[in-house]
Specification:
- The structure holds 2 protein chains of 2 kinds.
- By secondary structure, chain A is mostly beta strands.
- Chain A has no helices and 11 strands.
- In chain A, the strands form 2 sheets. In chain A, strands 2, 4, 5, 6, 9, 10 and 11 form a 7-stranded mixed β-sheet that branches. In chain A, strands 1-3-8-7 form a 4-stranded antiparallel β-sheet, with no helix packed on it.
- Chain A is globular, with a radius of gyration of 13 Å.
- By secondary structure, chain B is mostly beta strands.
- Helices cover 0% and strands 60% of the residues of chain B.
- In chain B, strands 2, 4, 5, 9, 10 and 11 form a 6-stranded mixed β-sheet that branches.
- In chain B, a hairpin with a 5-residue loop joins strand 9 and strand 10.
- The N and C termini of chain B lie far apart (41 Å).
- Classes of the chains: A mainly beta, B mainly beta.
- At the A-B interface, strand 4, strand 5 and strand 10 of A face strand 4, strand 5, strand 9 and strand 10 of B.
């Protein structure tokens, strides 16, 4: 595709509900990242996939957060039993291959703004 | 761990030059990136530095000094559309993700 797409763009959930956020990376991009961005802050790393393998999930704030990328393309970030502190913009980014190569820039999607009431 | 510091807000005049500074502390440096983010939009890549010195791309330049843990983004011939947040991010050796600062919100005034 032309860029990273995310859906929905906006999600309002009641506290305690489960939500699922979708990311479609740029076609052929091997690496996929999820970040959380609170209002007025920079993005904070959540988790990283290389193809279908979740290689790093050290940034996930609790076991209520779960991410998957079963076929190595589309990814879903799931948040169970949402809390008010989960309100943020969730950004997805992808890059061409292992991001250890300096030239492999991360390209970001527009994000999903989650509001938990 | 990582610690990245940049000013919260800056204001500059259309047509002028502005320099946005970023200082960082990291256990193993492997590149510094600058992104631009308009309100409600995706961060877009501007530049990266891995070696000391100045990288120039049109109206935007980025400088790095690894010994000082310091970078700046220089924007020339400011335009109103340059009003946005500018995010400084570093990558650690051994890590695949980026560590971002809080961002500098730049307002360009006529």
């Amino acid at each position: 595709g032309a860029g990273v797409s995310q859906s929905p763009r906006y999600k309002v959930a009641k506290r305690g509900q489960d939500v699922a956020l979708r990311c479609d990376p740029i076609s052929g991009h091997v690496s996929l990242f999820w970040y959380q961005q609170a209002l007025g802050q920079g993005p904070e790393f959540l988790t990283y996939f290389q193809n279908e393998a979740q290689l790093d999930k050290s940034g996930l704030p609790s076991d209520r957060f779960f991410a998957e990328r079963p076929e190595g393309s589309v990814s879903t970030l799931k948040i169970q039993r949402t809390q008010q502190e989960d309100s943020a913009v969730y950004l997805c980014a992808s890059s061409t291959r292992s991001f250890r190569r300096i030239t492999d820039t991360q390209y970001f999607g527009p994000g999903t703004r989650l509001t938990v009431l | 761990g990582q610690n990245i510091d940049q000013p919260t807000e800056m204001t500059a005049t259309e047509g002028a030059i502005v320099q946005i500074n970023c200082t960082y502390q990291t256990s193993g440096f492997n590149g510094l990136f600058w992104y631009q983010q308009h309100a409600g939009e995706a961060p877009t890549f501007l530049s990266y530095n891995v070696l000391d010195g100045l990288e120039e791309k049109g109206r935007f330049s980025s400088f790095l000094s690894r010994s000082k843990g310091y970078s700046y983004l220089l924007l020339k011939e400011l335009q109103m559309k340059d009003s946005a947040s500018y995010l400084c991010a570093v990558r650690d050796k051994g890590a695949n993700n980026l560590f971002f600062g809080t961002g500098t919100r730049l307002t360009v005034i006529p």
